[in-house]
């Protein structure tokens, strides 16, 4: 066989196989001022790219700035003033691709210099019931200056970083984070002032610090499958750990075991306490101290 | 003459550029009533658009004065829209910016298509938004055209062919004897190889789970689990690839003629590529008709079935030959025990050809070692 012809045929086939998919980028901005809203229910969907969530400027109910590929996704937002519900996001075909059919030819283009993004600002000073569904990409939640009454984050293939930089205006009823693959990092979770925190970490594990202005008793349920879970607790807080591990280990140095639980030495005298119910499989659970 | 050509070419290019420009960049002079109607129709259908009556739209820059009170909506076509007074409806700029002046009030939404919005101290009761272009007709997952369906399928098939061709080249360079041995096993023990391949496919997952659990019992084994996963994946992929290449080699020999025992690189390359092209042709045929419902499905089913049989048989042959390390000789060349003593009473060749050795029975224990 002629080597030149063979090489030429291979090159032609390679060009055919890797023909890039055209992209059609759109940018959208939207903003609405606060009228008479005294609460807000927000549902966010985001498929692929970078999601940033933060507090909006004063007197603004929501503002959004998004860039997306119109061939692949659609920017959707519906605000119902009667129910004070904002349903917003960039619904991407990626959500289906993650679970159903990966697209091979566009992978190189998807990592271009300026990928898709979705930046959402939410109102300050009114209670927000926030539900976030992430498919893939990365997410950054800067939740300081917001009043979150309930938070639920579901992530399929993303790494999410969350920071409660200032104390929540009122205690939060419940905070749930369900991260299938990718892991989570939560800074100053104590500022959420959540009575009950549920963390489900699939593959990738997570790191959480409980610094912040929480008082009383907090319950933290952590389920981690593969990876590790690091919990940093302020020194003044009392900690009780109930661990259920399968092919996993618990590292709680200085803790005393009694009645099937591990207690920190200051547990009885501490003014604020956290009970950690950890379920780990093929993962390590580590509880350590951090300055408040 | 040449100048005329240049001018014509320039006009063609300019025309094409104008036709493909976004709405926000379109020249006002090029606008027609039909265009305006089309854009307003699209704007109304766009999920982030707005409904605007053509009567509310004015060409070029437009200003609503501070003392002005518009009971309906206002719009500007390719010019900035400045609102200083009160608008009871929506304020829309198509292909331009919107400026909300101090003290102005818009009771509806403010929208800029292809421009930006500046609020200098006015009040907007509704939503303020800007969109870079319309997205009408582009839902989240647009239906693929016939050409896109075919191109996508052919690209996928071609990509796999390229990957296998490269692996095949590598196998011919570094593991030619193994490939030959596996191909021999496919040829000689086809049914057995298929059955073994089928059983292997069924057993891969349980064996993998058992291996992981066995490793995870101990701490050292737990550390080895990631390596086991990678190694197992590589081994399975390698076995499938080697087996399929062996099947492709045989298919190529069937199409291009036998090699007559020639195991050189050049002699094996041609049938291997022909075999791979044959499989590629099957898939391309299925892809080319993928837009034709029944025929497309039937062709792709046949392609999948043939490929699976080749994969399974090849995998079985890989297992039978221990990845080609233990060749299976064809029946005609299998060593056969002599049936009679007379078979060994042939004259020894005198031309230098090595004669067959007569098997000698192993000495019995306790026979004293003497003859």
What does this structure look like?
- The complex is a heterodimer of chains A (292) and B (371).
- By secondary structure, chain A is mainly β.
- Chain A has one domain: Pectate Lyase C-like (3 Solenoid), CATH 2.160.20.
- Chain A has helices spanning 3-17, 94-99, 107-110, and strands at residues 25-33, 40-46, 50-55, 60-69, 73-80, 85-92, 117-122, 127-142, 147-163, 172-181, 184-187, 194-203, 206-209, 217-234, 237-246, 249-251, 256-258, 261-263, 272-281, 283-290.
- A six-stranded parallel beta barrel of chain A has the order 9-10-12-14-13-11.
- In chain A, strand 5 (73-80) and strand 6 (85-92) form a beta hairpin.
- The longest helix of chain A has 15 residues, at 3-17.
- Mean pLDDT of chain A is 85; it is low at 94-111.
- Chain B has 371 residues and is of the alpha/beta class.
- Chain B folds into two domains: 22-131, no CATH class; 148-330, no CATH class.
- Chain B has helices spanning 2-20, 33-45, 146-174, 176-188, 190-216, 219-256, 265-288, 293-320; strands at 57-59, 62-64, 69-70, 74-77, 81-83, 86-87, 91-94, 98-100, 105-106, 110-113, 117-119, 123-124, 127-131.
- In chain B, strands 1-4-7-10-13 form a five-stranded parallel sheet, with no helix packed on it.
- Chain B starts with a helix and ends in a 51-residue tail after the last helix.
- Chain A binds chain B through residues 1, 6, 10, 13-14, 16-19, 24-33, 35, 70-77, 79, 91-93, 96, 104-105, 247, 282, and chain B through 47-48, 117, 123-133, 135, 138-142, 151-152, 154-156, 158-159, 161-162, 165, 216, 222, 269-270, 273.
Mean pLDDT of chain A: 85
Our Rg estimate of chain B from Cα atoms comes to 38 Å
Question: What is the number of helices of chain B?
Answer: 8
- End-to-end CA span of chain A: 74 Å
Shape of chain A: globular
- Beta-strand portion of chain A reads over 45%
When the domains of chain B are counted, the total is: 2
| Terminal CA distance of chain B | 110 Å
User: In percent terms, what proportion of residues of chain B is strand?
Assistant: 5-15%
Largest sheet of chain A: 6 strands, parallel, barrel
**Unreliable spans of chain A:** 94-111
Please give the radius of gyration of chain A in angstroms.
Answer: 23 Å
